[in-house]
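User: Round two. Same drill as before: sequence, then structure, for each protein.

Assistant: Same drill it is. First protein:
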Amino acid sequence: MNSGIPLFFYCLLLCLCEIGNVHAQNTDVHSTHVLLEQAKHLEAAQRYGDAIPLYREILLRDPENDNIRAALARLLSWQGIYAEAVELYRDVIRRHPVDLELRTALARVLSWQKHMPEAQTLYEGVLQEDPHHAEALQGLADVFLWEGRSAEALLYYERAYAVSKDSTVAERIASIRSTMAQQEQISSTPTESPVSEGRDETLARARAWERAAEYGQAIATYRQALAERPEDDEIRGDLARVLAGRDN
């Protein structure tokens, strides 16, 4: 009888430890769930800087959770922390290579980093699998527009709008069409000699080229105007702006 008592207490101790472990696990799961709800609430309120540490903490507790990893990458990209966002997206995509949304998100961040060739390749890969993917269509249009390829950009914006009916895309289409019309008008108008063209007309022509993303033409026109009026600080400032934008 007496020898059974220690065994009883040993079994009881094991049961209590197991109950304690289960309770601790349940508490940890509950705590993580609370953190996730807080992070989602902060993200919905556009308090991205406050949400990011919570997503980091959740990922430390659950390092296999690629949904959290992708959410963290998304918020980091919105905060301009592009390098880390790209690293996280690449990590997730290695395990989910067919996920079109992840590949589109990575392409978007790469385009924000001005890594246009890789962004274009990713967008085109998504569109090969889903030709009606609205975000990929718009993203590829953005790439073309930022590279000064307005006609190609317009084509993809129109395809994106046909799918999404997004008013922002419609406004972009209208803006590009207007700029291209101005460019056509400029191209079809006989160029007056530098002597007969006034300062304001030269600047208007240069700025129209700039709006049309025809930076080479804009720079040449600004330089022509500055050669005629080397003391004109406004022309010098316009030229510097275009040169800086092209270098960036």
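Second protein:
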Amino acid sequence: MGKKQDSLSLKKSQLTRSFGSGFLCIGLGIGLGIALTFTAGIGCGSKPDLSPTTAISTQSTPADPAKDGGNAPKTQEKSTPDSLPQGSPPAPTPPLEDGSIPNPSNPANPANAQDPGLLPLPNQTQPSEKTCGLRQVQKEFVARPFSPTETSNLPTLPYRSTEKDPDRHFRHALPILPLAGRTGITSNAIPYVRDSQVLFAFDLTDLPPKEAIISLEKAELVLGLTKISHDSSTSTELLCFLDERVCSGELFEDKFWKKNINPAFFGGKPPVNNFFAQQFLDHQVGSLDKDKLYSATLTLKLSDLISGSSFHDVLDFTYSGLPSNLPVSKRVLKLEIADDTFVSKDSALRITLIEDTCRTLSLTQPNPK
């Protein structure tokens, strides 16, 4: 009887411990926020695993199939600063040994070293991107007639009209014509010019400072011309830059016309070269009485037209009278062609240059970046 009671007491004690262990297990499961898992060989009476790998988790990784015969449960990585999402604020700087917070503005403080992943400190600036360099600038300026103001204030011209000569009783008038102006038109509608001065201009706008130009690649006139050709004087044509007093070509120095040459313009000096006079127009388009009409579109380099002048080069000529350190908002180039040549309104001046925009910025901005 005593043995039965002892056996019954032992079973009762084991049952009590089992129930107590079960309640303790459930309580721990609720308190820690994890689910209890019962697997073969693991009972409720086993100790719960409270290691950091299960207590603190951020993401799961595949188990190594080589472990536990390929049946190992998934493990979880410990949360560390390296695993924070991108863009999260950095961890606060730990206090120094004396309990004070490091001062970033103190250069002697190692905490002042810039972390590549942090924003710049308030007293630091990020380097700006390079926005300047060499660039090619191409410009085409279309010819235009003189304005009314320019026409009423004409510069000194290469030719002038003469009054009647007391001995010979004749005068030579050299009318002034605008761009595309004509003195007549042929039966097949070809405009022509005879014994006249055609005036036109180019507005050179938005050019960089002369000091910022690395090289002038191209500067040329493209002129649509029609010329009356006299057998005895095929090359007496003249192209002049009026304000610069530079002419290319040949003067008409016939004894009956010599007084029409304006000494105030030339100052006793001849044209700087005869390049323009040598540009014969080889395409005959018609005739006028005993004369022939030739037409062509000529491309003439400015360097050829001003060769022999006092200008060092075309760049010097183009920026004549202008400050070298400032951009050119507008420069007017005035021309004349005389005396038997019609000039088309489609004529143009083309310029190609290489600009150092870094130099332009340094000249035009007080504190360029």
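The first helix runs from residue 2 to 32.

User: Perfect.
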